Amino acid sequence: MSKVVCKTKRIGGGFGGKETRSAFIAAIAAVPSYHLNRPVKLTLDRDIDMMITGQRHSFLGKYKVGFANNGKVLALDLGIFNNAGNSLDLSLAILERAMFHSDNVYEIPNVRVNGRVCFTNFPSNTAFRGFGGPQGMLITENWIQRIAVEVKKRPEEIREINFISDGTLLHYGQLIEHCTLDRLWNELKSSCDWLKAQQEVEQFNLHNRWKKRGVAMIPTKFGISFTTKFMNQAGALVQIYTDGTVLVTHGGVEMGQGLHTKVAQIAASSFNIPLSSVFISETSTDKVPNASPTAASASSDMYGAAVLDACEQIKARMEPITSRHNFSSFSELVNACYMERIDLSAHGFYITPDVGFDWGTGKGSPFRYFTYGAAFAEVEIDTLTGDFHTRRADVYLDLGYSLNPAIDVGQIEGAFVQGLGWVALEELKWGDAAHKWIRPGCLYTCGPGSYKIPSVTDVPFKFHVSLLKGAPNAKAIHSSKAVGEPPFFLASAVFFAIKDAIIAARAEVGCNEWFPLDNPATPERIRMACTDEFTKPFVDSDFHPKLSV
């Protein structure tokens, strides 16, 4: 490994698919490169890439929930299964995170969670933004919605009476501290005018037979840290040159998420110099070895802290010179230090403290802290075609004292729209017994013609993103919080708003019982769930379409 230097300037979006599944393509390229002693480049077409490199994991959840007549949850017995495909890859870690997040934000006194990784004849599935967390939380929100049907209340009421708070002990033994969930929820209710929104939707539904609207509010909490303890380490190299400019190298990869910008900001603020004086060239294994994947939303926390550690080391060496003179500029100070033969380069290192989990006892604190969020969505569906559009979405997130609000708001907007694709658009169709028109074992949805990712028309008509004010986080760099993965799940507000609209459509024909709706809520599934005189000759009101996973 010391003889091979890997350099990465930047990559065009990550989201998990490039974390491990590039390795087997690299191995294939390495064989002819070794034998022919010349460079080999291998580039997959989009359709081939989608067919062979795996997808995010599909999950199956089987639950038994005990609850009181008021909707207060008393016990949960949950079995979750994920479709790993033909190799283990990261499937076990993804299952573990789904198990950790299978309570979402709810206090459940008695919990048993059993998880199984399923070996199947599919290409090996892999990491995706959220890493199993959203799947675990979506199962939770489904049974919350089912409780609401049983006790004849709004799901939002069931959510509120089961919220965690400071002092809550989670099912894996971690204590909740500095919980901002109540504040977020109440500010969101106020900003979207929840009661008025409900009333307006009810009025619309009374006067429209074939178009229905629905609303939903969804909370989330996302644990920040790698659940594999040894990966919570980060290194950085900071070098100051005699013209006062600073070169920073760290182990994180820039993929459009703004990591380099945030890390450069931290270095600039530490030395009290302009951001333009700090440069990050590339990520390189000869500068920072043994780096963990740039994943788990933790990179700004870890690499920011490692860079700050290096900066503080250099500042400590400079301090004797600084205390003796008043310098008019940073470059003057640097030159003076250079003349005094002071080392102007430092290696910084950071380990995330107080994290760890023992699978033997099932107890521990796998996360350093939690990022909380909540979202409101209003949708309108056409019950005859299953088409829908998101009329409005309001998103609130607690990001502590954000390192860069512009980047973070962009991350939230992107995560929400990407999550909208997950819950409502992006369906995989494989050749199997339920899809005989596709060649057995082949992926039909392998390109933009058949696999529908969100487009500009899928963005909510009114889209508001807000950050919670006055909630510093003492457990991360400069009181900030991680932003990458937490907002992704909030798009499920659109999914449950669609389900709310379908409930209104079914009420027209006297169907008021609970019904299954799997994600993605595609137009076909929405249409068939809207029971009416056109569907009754073909399917019952509890119709459950066969899935292709």
Automatic annotation (TrEMBL):
It comes from the Eukaryota. Its cofactor is Mo-molybdopterin; [2Fe-2S] cluster; FAD. One of its GO terms (molecular function) is metal ion binding. SUPFAM superfamilies: Molybdenum cofactor-binding domain. Residues 188-460 form the Aldehyde oxidase/xanthine dehydrogenase second molybdopterin binding domain. Pfam families: MoCoBD_1, MoCoBD_2. Residues 2-163 form the Aldehyde oxidase/xanthine dehydrogenase first molybdopterin binding domain. Keywords: 2Fe-2S, FAD, Flavoprotein, Iron, Iron-sulfur, Metal-binding, Molybdenum, Oxidoreductase. Belongs to the xanthine dehydrogenase family. This is Xanthine dehydrogenase. It comes from Ilex paraguariensis (yerba mate).
